[in-house]
Amino acid sequence: MFSARYMDFAIIGWLITSLSNDPSSVGLLIFLRFIPLTTSGLISGWLVDKFPRLKIIKTIIVITSIYYFLLSYYLLIGSETIEIFYILTFISGILSSIDLASRQSYLSNLVRRKTLKFSLAIDIILMNLCIFLGPNIGMLFYEIIDFYQIYFYLGIVTLLNLLIIRKNPNLSMLKNKKEEYSGFAKGVGFAIKNKLILSTLLILAFGNFFAFSFESMAPYVGKNILNSSPQEFSFLLSMQGLGALSGAILFFPLIVKINRPGLVFAISSISLCIFSFLFSFENSYFMTCVIIFFGGLSIAIFGNMHTRILISQTPNPLRGRIQGLRQLSIGFFPLGSLFLGLSGDYFGISDSIRLFSFTGVLITIFILILFRELRVKIFNK
């Protein structure tokens, strides 16, 4: 499903950049794709804790398949407008938001605590593999068949996931634990009291707002500055996934041994800002790919560290709601992308990216100094 989502993202990105040349159009695309993480993150987290997580996953699979079939029909009738693509992108974001909260909460309950950090690392490796493969497969198929046919087959393949997970256990929570941690506000209260989780969520939010310019503006740079072909465009977008996949594999022995994940998480956020700063210069296609690739390496550590902290430091009955807060923080990415795109229209995209990068470094350092919990050792076993 993850490969299909990033295939969908690459195709919609190509279609929108073909209809508009403004940085703000790409910023709005990213905003609508990821804003559901902000608007529905808390609600989806609460749903995941209240209802069986496996049933939610199966429901999302069915709805996602319907989404692909409808999009296939829309492309078939040939009346594409940028407004409809924005609406479809928003719907896709809602489905991703609920799936993300349910899937990782289910996974964390499926494995034993002592193997949790290994399981999360493998999950991130597979996710980044999908981020790399999705855009390239989508544009590769575009050389053979039309976009509407691609979406039709995506709908069928997505439904096949029901067969793969048909024998998975439901993993219902104990009733007394459910009652102890019941209530929408329990998750927020727990996050505020736990300073490590609070500081992690803050860096996650500001990092997503300021540090991911090389990701959010990659479609605009690839299509309108580098004048990429469809294959070059998809490869450029997938370089983040390739970098993150390479980092997750190469750093795997190191990642599972890190006992100061908060500190490493903060450093990775700073490195993302640095690569965004380098991305702001007028680079060749090759150098742009290299910068995005190394940014992806940082994402591998950034994603693994904050996921490990939030899941391992949270009781199982609350993990859905903490995942909802995580999605709320990730939801700052579309907000940052929208403001960056608007700023790029008025002040130039390069200067705007540099300002965002510098601000992100300063805020991350401030949070790292303010919360000592980020610098202490955990996971000693």
Note down, in words, how this protein is organized:
The protein is an all-alpha fold and 381 residues long. It has a single domain, classed as Growth Hormone, Chain: A (Up-down Bundle), CATH 1.20.1250. It contains 21 helices and no strands. It has helices at residues 2-19, 23-34, 36-39, 41-50, 53-77, 82-110, 116-142, 147-159, 161-164, 175-180, 184-193, 195-210, 213-216, 218-225, 230-250, 252-255, 261-279, 285-312, 319-330, 332-347, 349-370. It is globular, with a radius of gyration of 20 Å. The relative contact order is 0.18. Residues 174-181 have low confidence and may be disordered.
How are the SSEs ordered, and which strands pair?
Blueprint: H1 2-19, H2 23-34, H3 36-39, H4 41-50, H5 53-77, H6 82-110, H7 116-142, H8 147-159, H9 161-164, H10 175-180, H11 184-193, H12 195-210, H13 213-216, H14 218-225, H15 230-250, H16 252-255, H17 261-279, H18 285-312, H19 319-330, H20 332-347, H21 349-370
Helix pairs in contact: 1-2, 1-6, 1-7, 1-14, 2-6, 2-20, 4-6, 4-19, 5-6, 5-8, 6-19, 7-15, 7-18, 11-19, 12-17, 12-19, 12-20, 12-21, 14-15, 15-18, 17-18, 17-21, 20-21
